[in-house]
């Protein structure tokens, strides 16, 4: 029981680091526990130096607040560039492409700037803006509320949005990968949107860096074994050797190319 609570505490801290802040109710829904349980967790976690409470939310303390998405986008630039170039090489001119949320996926969108006449269906506003510089592209985005600071759209409307289209390629990332290859996210809405994308595409392409292997997140989606192509910067740590071996030629380590 203690280890379960400890894991939940670690995940709460990850969620806040990712998003900058989250409501008590959202955390209770995310972990399937009562509001009272979450409040007890927060009594232990909110020390004022790293995390603090504000109007029914838990947030990063003032001195720790950065723009989480921009912070992620600025890490592992060499690895993300290699991943992006390898993924972009798979997309021909004139293709229809689903593009999901995430900083690694945004790197791929930027690497697609040389492509022409793409039809891009995305809930990632930053990716849409990067690809809008090529006027031969057609870009389709959902309506609704823009989530900040990530500049993306999430929710059931987005799941329905992706359900109305079919694509040749689906480009997406994931928050973490479990020991058995489970694709993990911080919200079930993100899981459902990603599932709908790769189910409605002829070819699914997962883009990740090695840090995602073993990274925890509470919402479980599909499995990496269901994906057509996985592009990673470098091989993950030894505990994932067997998983990589089972993937065989479907996984590419982009920094090894060339």
Automatic annotation (TrEMBL):
Presence of the UniProt keyword Phosphoprotein in the record: no
MF annotations from Gene Ontology: DNA binding; DNA-binding transcription factor activity
Protein name: Glycerol-3-phosphate regulon repressor
Top-level taxonomic group: Bacteria
InterPro entries registered for this protein in UniProt: Carb_Metab_HTH_regulators, DeoR-like_C, DeoR_HTH, NagB/RpiA_transferase-like, Tscrpt_reg_HTH_DeoR_CS, WH-like_DNA-bd_sf, WH_DNA-bd_sf
Keywords: DNA-binding, Repressor, Transcription, Transcription regulation
Residues of the HTH deoR-type domain: 5-60
Pfam (any one): HTH_DeoR
């Amino acid at each position: 029981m203690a280890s379960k609570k400890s894991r939940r505490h670690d995940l709460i801290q990850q969620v806040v680091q990712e998003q900058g802040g989250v409501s008590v109710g959202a955390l209770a829904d995310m972990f399937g526990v009562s509001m009272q349980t979450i409040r007890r967790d927060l009594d232990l976690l909110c020390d004022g130096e790293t995390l603090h409470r504000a109007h029914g939310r838990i947030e990063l303390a003032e001195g720790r607040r950065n723009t989480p998405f921009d912070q992620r986008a600025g890490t592992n630039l060499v690895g993300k560039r290699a991943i992006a170039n390898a993924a972009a090489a798979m997309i021909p001119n004139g293709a229809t492409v689903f593009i999901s949320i995430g900083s690694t996926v945004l790197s791929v969108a930027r690497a697609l700037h040389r492509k022409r006449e793409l039809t891009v269906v995305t809930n990632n506003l930053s990716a849409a803006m990067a690809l809008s510089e090529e006027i031969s592209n057609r870009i389709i985005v959902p309506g609704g509320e823009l989530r900040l600071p990530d500049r993306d759209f999430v929710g059931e409307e987005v799941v329905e949005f992706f359900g109305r289209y079919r694509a040749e390629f689906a480009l997406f990332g994931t928050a973490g990968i479990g020991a058995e290859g489970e694709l993990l996210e911080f919200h079930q809405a993100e899981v459902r949107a990603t599932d709908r994308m790769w189910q409605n595409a002829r070819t699914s392409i997962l883009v990740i860096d090695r840090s995602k292997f073993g990274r925890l997140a509470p919402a479980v989606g599909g499995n990496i074994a269901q994906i057509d192509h996985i592009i990673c910067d470098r091989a993950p740590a030894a505990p994932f050797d067997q998983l990589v071996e089972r993937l065989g030629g479907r996984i590419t380590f982009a920094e090894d190319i060339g």
